[in-house]
C-alpha cells in the first residue's frame, strides 16, 4: 500500500509548478471559459453560419488538431516544459485573432480559427502533465495534477458564468469576449514562459543497450476513449435527456453543470489524496465501476418520466461526477508512472490522442444513441464502461514490468 499524501497548500502549489505557473493556469482557464462554451454561438450569431456547418467546422478542427500530438511528444522528450505550455497558449491567441478577423459567412476561415484553438487545447494537457511530472514525483505529483484540474475547472466555471452575464449584449458582446479571451491567453503564455522550466533529457542508451520503448498501453488507451465520455455527460447527454425526453426546464441542466463544477473544484484534490492508499490502476478501474453505476442510475431516473425524473437525474449526476473525479485523478497519474522518463512526452501525447479522440466522437455517439431511447444510450455507455474498467484492471505491461519515474520500475502503487 502507498503512503497517503497530506494536503499542504504551499507544497501543492510548488509541486504544481510554482505561484506564477498557478496564476498562468487560472488566467488561461478563465479565458477559455469565456469563449469555448460559446464558440458555436459565435459562429451562428456573429458569423451567420448555420448550426450544422458551425458544428462540423468545430469537429473538423478538433480532429485535425490531434495530428499535432506526436510532434508535441517529441518536443517534450527533448526536455522542453514551460516553453511547450506557453506555445499551446500562444497558438490559441492566433486562433482568437483569426476568429476576430473572420467576416460573416466565411466558414473556412472560421474552421482555421477552430483548428488553431483545437491545437492549443490538445497540446496543453500533455505539456502541463510533463511539467508537473518534472517538478513533483510519486503521490505528490498525483495531488499536483489533481490541484491543476481543480484550479482549471474553477477558472472555466468563472469564465463561463461571466460570459453568460455578458451575453445580453448580443453579437458585440461575443466579439468582446473573444478579444478578452485572446488577451488572457497572451498573458497566460507570458506567465508560463517566465517559469523557465526545462528538463534534462535522459541520455540515450549506449550502443547495444536496450532503448526504453514507448509503453503500448493498448487496453488503457482503448478504455480511455470510453472513460472520457463521462466528461461530456453533464454538458451534452444530460441536457439532451432532460429537455427532449423528460421535457424539464433548462434550469435543471444548469443545476447539473454547476453542481459538477463545484464538486470537481472542491473534491478533486481531497479524493485523489484519499485514494492514494490504493494503486492508481485500481482507482481507475473503480472509477469505471462508479461511472457504470451512474449510467444505470440515469436509466432508472429517466424511467420516472416528467416530474420526478429531472430531480432524480440531478441526484444521480453527483455519482457520475464522483466517478469522473476518480478517473481524472488516476488516469494521467497512471500514465506518468508507467512512462520511462526518456519517452514521457511521447507517452503522454499518445494518451492525449485517445482523450482527444474520445472527446471528438462522444457528442456524435451520444446524440446518435439518444433518439433510440434511454436503454440504448445509458445501457450502451454502461456496458462499454464496465468492459473498459475490466480491461484496465487486468492489463499488464510487457514482461510484467511497469516502468515508473525516471525509467526505474514503478512502485506497487502504479
Automatic annotation (TrEMBL):
UniProt xrefs under InterPro entries: MFS, MFS_trans_sf, MFS_Transporters
Keyword tags: Cell membrane, Membrane, Transmembrane, Transmembrane helix, Transport
Bilayer topology: Multi-pass membrane protein
GO cellular component: plasma membrane
SUPFAM superfamilies (alphabetical): MFS general substrate transporter
Entry's transmembrane regions: 21-43, 49-72, 84-101, 107-138, 150-170, 176-199, 220-242, 254-275, 282-301, 313-339, 351-369, 375-393
Compartment(s): Cell membrane
Keyword Repeat tagged: no
One of the record's GO molecular function terms: transmembrane transporter activity
Gene3D superfamilies, A to Z: MFS general substrate transporter like domains (1.20.1250.20)
One Pfam family per UniProt: MFS_1
Keyword Ion transport: no
Protein name stated in the entry: MFS family permease
Amino acid at each position: 500500500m502507498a503512503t497517503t499524501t497530506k494536503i499542504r497548500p504551499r507544497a501543492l502549489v510548488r509541486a504544481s509548478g510554482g505561484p506564477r505557473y498557478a496564476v498562468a493556469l487560472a488566467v488561461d482557464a478563465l479565458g477559455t471559459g469565456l469563449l469555448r462554451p460559446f464558440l458555436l454561438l459565435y459562429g451562428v450569431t456573429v458569423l451567420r453560419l448555420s448550426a450544422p456547418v458551425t458544428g462540423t467546422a468545430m469537429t473538423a478542427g478538433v480532429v485535425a488538431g490531434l495530428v499535432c500530438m506526436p510532434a508535441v511528444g517529441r518536443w517534450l522528450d527533448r526536455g522542453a516544459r514551460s516553453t511547450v505550455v506557453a506555445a499551446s497558449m500562444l497558438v490559441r491567441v492566433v486562433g482568437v485573432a483569426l476568429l476576430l478577423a473572420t467576416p460573416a459567412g466565411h466558414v473556412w476561415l472560421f474552421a482555421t480559427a477552430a483548428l488553431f484553438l483545437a491545437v492549443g487545447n490538445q497540446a496543453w494537457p500533455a505539456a502541463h502533465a510533463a511539467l508537473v511530472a518534472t517538478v513533483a514525483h510519486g503521490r505528490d505529483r498525483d495531488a499536483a495534477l489533481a490541484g491543476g484540474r481543480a484550479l482549471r475547472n474553477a477558472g472555466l466555471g468563472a469564465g463561463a458564468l461571466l460570459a453568460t452575464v455578458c451575453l445580453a449584449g448580443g453579437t458585440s458582446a461575443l466579439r468582446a469576449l473573444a478579444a478578452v479571451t485572446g488577451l488572457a491567453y497572451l498573458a497566460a503564455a507570458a506567465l508560463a514562459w517566465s517559469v523557465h522550466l526545462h528538463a534534462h533529457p535522459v541520455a540515450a542508451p549506449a550502443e547495444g543497450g536496450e532503448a526504453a520503448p514507448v509503453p503500448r498501453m493498448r487496453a488503457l488507451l482503448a478504455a480511455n476513449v470510453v472513460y472520457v465520455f463521462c466528461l461530456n455527460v453533464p454538458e451534452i447527454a444530460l441536457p439532451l435527456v432532460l429537455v427532449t425526453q423528460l421535457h424539464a426546464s433548462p434550469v435543471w441542466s444548469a443545476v447539473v453543470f454547476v453542481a459538477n463544477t463545484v464538486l470537481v473544484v472542491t473534491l478533486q484534490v481531497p479524493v485523489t489524496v484519499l485514494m492514494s492508499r490504493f494503486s492508481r490502476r485500481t482507482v481507475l478501474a473503480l472509477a469505471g465501476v462508479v461511472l457504470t453505476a451512474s449510467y444505470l442510475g440515469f436509466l432508472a431516473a429517466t424511467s420516472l418520466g416528467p416530474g420526478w425524473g429531472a430531480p432524480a437525474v440531478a441526484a444521480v449526476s453527483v455519482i457520475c461526477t464522483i466517478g469522473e473525479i476518480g478517473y481524472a485523478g488516476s488516469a494521467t497519474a497512471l500514465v506518468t508512472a508507467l512512462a520511462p522518463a526518456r519517452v514521457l512526452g511521447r507517452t503522454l501525447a499518445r494518451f492525449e490522442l485517445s482523450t482527444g479522440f474520445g472527446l471528438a466522437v462522444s457528442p456524435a455517439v451520444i446524440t446518435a444513441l439518444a433518439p433510440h431511447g434511454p436503454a440504448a444510450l445509458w445501457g450502451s455507455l454502461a456496458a462499454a464502461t464496465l468492459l473498459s474498467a475490466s480491461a484496465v484492471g487486468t492489463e499488464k505491461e510487457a514482461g510484467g514490468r511497469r516502468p515508473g519515474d525516471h525509467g526505474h520500475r514503478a512502485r506497487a502503487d502504479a
